[in-house]
Amino acid sequence: MPFITSGVRLAVGRAVVGMVVGEFFTSISGLGGLIIKYSNSFATDRMFVPIIVLTVFGVVLTELVKVFERKVVPWKETERMTF
């Protein structure tokens, strides 16, 4: 079970990156599309808004998976405290 939860935690970050890269190539209206649109028009201030939203989204999802991991695999927390 600890290996599964660790894999899910790693997959969350890669899923957010994959979602944005997919939107770079296919979307016009998603967050990736907004980043491309604003970077092409040199609107740097507006370009950082979707980047910050994606960063917060990734951090929140990772923390949610950590909370889930603490609930499902409580003995792993004691292993982390010994190191």
Task: Provide the descriptors you would attach to this structure in a database record.
83 residues, mainly alpha, 4 helices, elongated
Descriptive account of the structure:
The protein has 83 residues and is mainly alpha-helical. The protein has one domain. Helix content is 87%, strand content 0%. It has helices at residues 2-26, 31-40, 44-72, 75-82. Helix 1 (2-26) crosses helix 2 (31-40), helix 1 runs antiparallel to helix 3 (44-72) and helix 2 packs antiparallel against helix 3 (44-72). The chain starts with a helix and ends with a helix.
Short description:
By secondary structure, the chain is mainly α.
Give the overall shape, derived from the CA principal axes. elongated
What is the makeup of the main sheet? Answer: none
Helix content: over 70%
Helix and strand sequence: HHHH
Give the strand content. Answer: under 5%
Total strand segments: 0
- Uncertain regions spanning at least 5 consecutive residues: none
Average pLDDT confidence is 86
Give the termini distance in whole angstroms. Answer: 20 Å
Structural class label: mainly alpha
